């Protein structure tokens, strides 16, 4: 038996093994015990930290809130005191104003009473008035007396209205003719007061001059007493009517007979025999529109007011308003109101729509008897002037609503002594309804005019009221940011204290980390000697998923089990950008990613706030889930609200992004699809490990999205049941049509409207109605929306041109050492005499390569002055306004063309081969830039040329007249003669835009654009002329010249300086030509959009008799011919130019695809277009002329061009002359 066979050796081995295992277990237990102690201690310290921070936080909040409310309440009290003090002062002044102001009018009426008694031989003690001379009374020095009364009462105009009966009518009419000299005397008096400086040329400066003027005026007005031209021609030398003498119907200034008022101020209608009459007599101030002998009782409210006067009461009328205007307004009320205001101000004043008030005060026969009325004093005043000067200058921001129970209300703003009209209606801020201070004008109020009893006010059952409110401006003046500042200071002290606490805590942790690190090293040495268990083995699958999402596992560690689990209660959302593919086909890749990053970045923020888990983005599709990794009982409600908020956010974002990304961005919308159920979630390991969802729930959610509608949230029956269970059934609306989903069969689905309340269950969402529209509206959209879109396009165009302008200024600064344009006062103006076609050249001379002009600085560093940017914006706005509202040739299409130009310019590429040889040596950088300049024909080296082609794209269809050049010659022979019957529409657009750019208001823009260098102006003009005229593609003579020049420019011969300029010119014009029809070389949806608009435009022209052939007959075949003979060859030549890189391939690919799609579906599309056009023609039979430069033959066969007209002067183009680069 050997030693190894002894039985006790096995026992020793077992004992040794047991000892090692027990030692390991004991060490592990000790380590675990130490870990627990450390864990408990850390927890205790952490609780103490939280307690300290909580105490600091509560103290800071308590102190800051206390101070905030104390200071805020003090401000509020001061605001209340200021408002109520001013408001009660205005209210208290309301009745006293009427008594004081109208009382001075009553005093004048008493003077008339005395005048009548004196002329009739009646004295105050007389008991009867039979000897009273009324109505044959004319007061001496009336204008002096009236002027005093007008100053005291602040009335604008007053007229004496004697009471005339049928018995004394004939005598009165004879009396008024013989005693009309008071009119000229009143005018002379007003001249002395310089109140007529606006009325006649010159001013009397001495007594002789005044006498001569009075004599001339008497001869003019009274010698030919009763007929003169429209008096508004004499009202103002600053607002005169047209200079040419136009014969008009005579206007009667003095009528020998009492006549009636008519709505259109037609003179000569004798007054009816409805007595008594109240004809206009002595008036102050004298105006050309007084209408002497006009029976005021014939006015719409005249009979009611004057009947009140006959009862011995003061009749206060309602609001008198008219359209705003000046003394030359065709509305006689407007003209008269403007003349009254001008007379009061002593200078021309336009009437702004401020309401005036009519009042009629009785004139009695004597002082004892207030029952016999012999006339009335009619006057007009403005409430606005009555409230001026009541409040001190520091009382600002009061809103006063003047209300008449019958005529509505007007709103004023009172700033100190000044009163401003805001507008018609009660326009106060509803936020201040509780601060209303009001008063009413009582009918019991008596005007004390100096008589014994006074005169009572009668408001005809329509009492006046005044309501005073504060404004936001007043509120903000007294509610400052001081409470917030104090609160922030206190919070800053808290943050500082907390920061110092954390710094101290950090120092302690660093010390503790040294101790812990030493302990870990010791423990690691011991633990490394013994096997350990993987802690992840003790985690449940659900916990493993959470740990992965929080970064707790190595994503690519394949040594551990797969991270996956089943989540039974989730809601999955798929959201897809509708119209994105077509939109992206017109943009640069950078613009596409700008859109996606902006939109999905905002969605991520919303998801984080609503605790929704974003899974991934696949192209333009956004996938998210609610209910994992943490369970959420209301996951369906959370996802519905998340989808709704994303939909609203997208609507806001696309409006903002359109200013940066260009037209049609606001057309983008989203489809949302939701489904609820179980999903398998896990991590697919590999090169790019990522978290993913699997299962039928995901597939169904995708089907909900793909079968949904734009701007709608589409949910399955399962999700709808969860919403009903969560008491959100009022959000749901059953989809009327069943959905056939791939792999699912027929599904009953629902639309979700989370904004809907319980009371809105039967109301359909406007979003649903919008989404169900399969075609965009053709007629004019809502005016506000259309103006908003146009302004966004104008701003986008302005920003685009501003970026190009910065490049020009940067180059000028690099070369000349200046960062600004020349003085605006010296801005060059260039207006050629010849037609633009004569200016076209074979090759545009571009600047030679200049290394010193190549700046490494970014153009964004250039600061364009605000006035230059404003002028550029105004210029673009003016251009947009000159575009006619056509379906196709409009400003939106010009922006689409400009966007295509910008995209092609951005694709002018640099050579990608042979550059290694240029990267060595001291002047390597210079040689590289020189090679790039030559390769791109110098296009990218000249910012002025780049600005010119973008500008040309913007203006190329300006003021398009809606017909071809041949038709335009028939409709506008003067324009045809001006442009020698060649490229008429194109030359007209260019001339109009150039004249707008050369206007005096654009001096600052021109100074920065050209630097006051005439050669720059001429070169820019040359670029614009060549590029704009390149859009005339239907002139056979020009087409032949283009073909010849193409062969010469791109021949096999080496490139010379002149040849390189010719190539650059050809490339630039090709960019413009391709951009003008870019919709044919873009996504099918873009092509369909503009093809539809063009058809509707041509069909409308045909219906108006402005086009020979019906487009319905040739549209299908014409489009095929247009593709074969123009579009596809043009796309191929873009590739032959060699400078557009992959863009040329993209254009050709889209052109071929659109051509094939049109050949397959075109006939069906044409039938739909015909039906739509006929439907529109029935809806709108009368429509302004539409515009197009295409003819029927141009689409049926591209080779058949309009060459019926030629010219002997402007069209004498040499063989080398270029107007268009034709394919």
From TrEMBL:
GO terms for biological process: intracellular signal transduction; receptor guanylyl cyclase signaling pathway. GO terms for cellular component: plasma membrane. Keywords: Lyase, Membrane, Nucleotide-binding, Receptor, Transmembrane, Transmembrane helix. The keyword Nucleotide-binding applies. It is found in: Membrane. Residues 571-705 form the Guanylate cyclase domain. Its main location: membrane. Residues 798-1097 form the PDEase domain. The chain crosses the membrane at residues 50-70, 482-504. One of its GO terms (molecular function) is adenylate cyclase activity. PANTHER family: GUANYLATE CYCLASE, GUANYLYL CYCLASE. This is Receptor-type guanylate cyclase gcy.
């Amino acid at each position: 038996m050997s030693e190894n066979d002894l039985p006790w050796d096995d026992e020793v081995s077992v004992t040794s093994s047991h000892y090692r295992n027990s030692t390991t277990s004991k060490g592990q237990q000790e380590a675990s015990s130490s870990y627990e102690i450390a864990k408990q201690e850390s927890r205790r310290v952490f609780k103490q930290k939280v307690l300290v921070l909580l105490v600091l936080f509560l103290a800071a909040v308590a102190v800051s809130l206390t101070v905030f409310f104390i200071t805020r309440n003090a401000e509020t009290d001061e605001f209340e005191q200021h408002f109520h003090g001013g408001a009660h002062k205005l209210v208290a002044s309301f009745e006293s104003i009427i008594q004081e102001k109208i009382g001075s009018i009553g005093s004048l009426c008493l003077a008339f009473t005395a005048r009548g008694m004196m002329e009739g031989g009646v004295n105050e003690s007389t008991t009867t008035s039979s000897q009273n001379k009324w109505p044959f009374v004319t007061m001496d020095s009336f204008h002096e007396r009236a002027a005093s009364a007008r100053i005291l009462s602040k009335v604008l105009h007053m007229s004496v209205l004697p009471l005339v009966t049928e018995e004394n009518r004939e005598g009165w009419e004879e009396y008024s003719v013989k005693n009309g000299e008071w009119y000229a005397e009143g005018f002379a008096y007003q001249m002395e007061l310089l109140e007529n400086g606006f009325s006649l040329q010159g001013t009397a400066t001495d007594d002789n001059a005044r006498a001569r003027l009075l004599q001339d005026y008497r001869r003019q007005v009274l010698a030919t007493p009763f007929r003169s031209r429209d008096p508004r021609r004499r009202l103002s030398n600053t607002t005169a009517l047209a200079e040419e003498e136009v014969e008009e119907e005579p206007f009667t200034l003095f009528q020998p007979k009492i006549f009636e008022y008519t709505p259109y101020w037609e003179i000569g209608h004798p007054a009816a025999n409805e007595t008594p009459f109240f004809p206009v007599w002595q008036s102050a101030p004298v105006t050309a529109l007084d209408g002497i002998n006009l029976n005021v009782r014939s006015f719409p409210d005249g009979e009611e007011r004057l009947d009140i006067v006959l009862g011995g009461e003061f009749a206060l009328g309602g609001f008198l308003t008219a359209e705003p205007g000046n003394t030359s307004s065709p509305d006689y009320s407007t003209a008269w109101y403007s003349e009254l205001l001008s007379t009061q101000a002593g200078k021309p004043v336009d009437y702004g729509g401020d309401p005036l008030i009519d009042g009629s005060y009785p004139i009695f026969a004597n002082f004892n008897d207030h029952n016999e009325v012999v006339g009335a004093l009619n006057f007009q005043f403005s409430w606005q002037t009555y409230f001026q000067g009541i409040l001190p200058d520091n009382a600002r921001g009061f809103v006063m609503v003047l209300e008449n129970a019958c005529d509505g209300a007007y709103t004023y703003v009172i700033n100190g002594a000044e009163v401003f009209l805001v507008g018609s209606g009660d326009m106060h801020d509803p936020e201040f309804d509780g601060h209303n201070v009001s008063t009413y004008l009582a009918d019991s109020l008596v005007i004390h005019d100096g008589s014994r009893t006074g005169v009572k006010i009668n408001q005809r059952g329509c009492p006046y009221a005044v309501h005073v409110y504060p404004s936001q401006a007043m509120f903000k003046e007294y509610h400052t940011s001081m409470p917030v500042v104090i609160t922030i200071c206190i919070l800053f002290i808290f943050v500082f204290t907390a920061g110092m606490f954390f710094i101290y805590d950090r120092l302690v942790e660093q010390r503790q980390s040294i101790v812990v690190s030493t302990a870990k090293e010791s423990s690691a040495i011991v633990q490394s000697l013994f096997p350990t268990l993987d802690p992840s083995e003790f985690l449940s699958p659900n916990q493993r998923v959470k740990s992965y999402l929080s970064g707790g596992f190595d994503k690519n560690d394949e040594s551990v089990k797969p991270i996956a689990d089943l989540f039974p209660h989730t809601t999955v959302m798929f959201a897809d950008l509708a119209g994105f593919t077509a939109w992206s086909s017109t943009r640069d890749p950078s613009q596409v990613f700008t859109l996606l990053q902006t939109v999905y970045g905002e969605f991520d923020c919303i998801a984080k706030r609503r605790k929704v888990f974003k899974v991934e983005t696949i192209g333009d599709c956004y996938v998210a889930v609610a209910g994992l990794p943490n369970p959420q009982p209301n996951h369906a409600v959370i996802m519905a609200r998340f989808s709704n908020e994303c939909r609203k956010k997208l609507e806001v974002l696309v409006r903002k992004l359109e200013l940066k990304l260009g037209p049609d961005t606001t057309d983008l919308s989203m489809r949302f699809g939701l489904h609820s159920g179980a999903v398998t979630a896990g991590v697919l390991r590999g090169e790019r490990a990522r978290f993913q969802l699997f299962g039928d729930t995901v597939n169904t959610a995708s089907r909900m999205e793909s079968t949904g509608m734009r701007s709608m949230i589409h949910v399955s029956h399962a999700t709808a049941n969860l919403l009903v269970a969560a008491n959100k059934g009022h959000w749901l609306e059953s989809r009327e049509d069943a959905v056939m989903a791939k792999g699912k069969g027929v599904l009953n689905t629902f639309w979700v409207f989370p904004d809907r309340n319980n009371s809105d269950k039967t109301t359909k969402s406007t979003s649903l109605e919008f989404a169900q529209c399969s075609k965009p509206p053709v007629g004019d959209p809502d005016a506000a929306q259309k103006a908003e879109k146009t302004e966004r396009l104008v701003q986008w165009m302005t920003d685009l041109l501003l970026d190009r302008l910065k490049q020009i200024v940067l180059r000028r600064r690099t070369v000349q050492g200046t960062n600004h344009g020349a003085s605006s006062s010296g801005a060059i103006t260039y207006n050629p005499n010849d037609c633009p076609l004569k200016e076209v050249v074979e090759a545009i001379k571009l600047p030679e390569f200049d290394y010193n002009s190549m700046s490494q600085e970014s153009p964004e560093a250039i600061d364009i002055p605000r006035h230059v940017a404003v002028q550029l914006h105004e210029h673009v706005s003016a251009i947009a306004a000159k575009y006619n509202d056509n379906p196709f040739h409009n400003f939106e299409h010009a922006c689409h063309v400009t966007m295509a130009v910008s995209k092609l310019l951005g694709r002018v590429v640099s050579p990608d081969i042979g550059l290694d040889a240029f990267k060595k040596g001291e002047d390597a950088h210079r040689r590289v830039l020189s090679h790039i300049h030559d390769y791109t024909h110098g296009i990218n080296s000249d910012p002025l040329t780049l600005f010119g082609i973008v500008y040309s794209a913007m203006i190329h269809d300006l003021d398009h007249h809606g017909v071809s050049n041949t038709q335009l010659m028939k409709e506008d022979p003067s324009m045809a003669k001006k442009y020698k019957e060649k490229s008429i529409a194109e030359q007209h657009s260019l001339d109009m835009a150039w004249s707008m750019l050369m206007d005096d208001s654009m001096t600052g823009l021109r100074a920065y654009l050209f630097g006051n260098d005439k050669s720059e102006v001429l070169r820019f003009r040359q670029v614009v002329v060549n590029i704009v005229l390149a859009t005339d593609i239907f002139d056979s003579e020009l087409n032949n010249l283009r073909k010849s020049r193409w062969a010469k420019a791109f021949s096999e011969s080496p490139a010379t300086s002149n040849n390189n300029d010719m190539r650059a010119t050809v490339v630039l014009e090709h960019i413009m030509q391709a951009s003008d029809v870019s919709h044919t070389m873009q996504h099918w949806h873009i092509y369909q959009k503009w093809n539809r608009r063009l058809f509707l435009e041509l069909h409308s022209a045909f219906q108006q008799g402005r086009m020979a052939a019906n487009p319905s007959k040739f549209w299908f075949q014409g489009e095929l011919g247009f593709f074969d003979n123009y579009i596809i060859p043009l796309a191929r030549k873009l590739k032959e130019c060699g400078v557009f890189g992959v863009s040329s391939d993209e254009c050709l690919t889209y052109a071929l695809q659109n051509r094939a799609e049109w050949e397959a579906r075109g006939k069906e599309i044409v039938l739909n277009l015909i039906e739509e056009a006929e439907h529109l023609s029935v809806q709108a039979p009368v429509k302004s002329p539409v515009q197009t430069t295409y003819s029927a033959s141009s689409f049926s066969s591209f080779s058949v061009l309009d060459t019926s007209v030629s010219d002997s002067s402007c069209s004498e183009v040499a063989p080398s002359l270029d107007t268009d680069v034709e394919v």
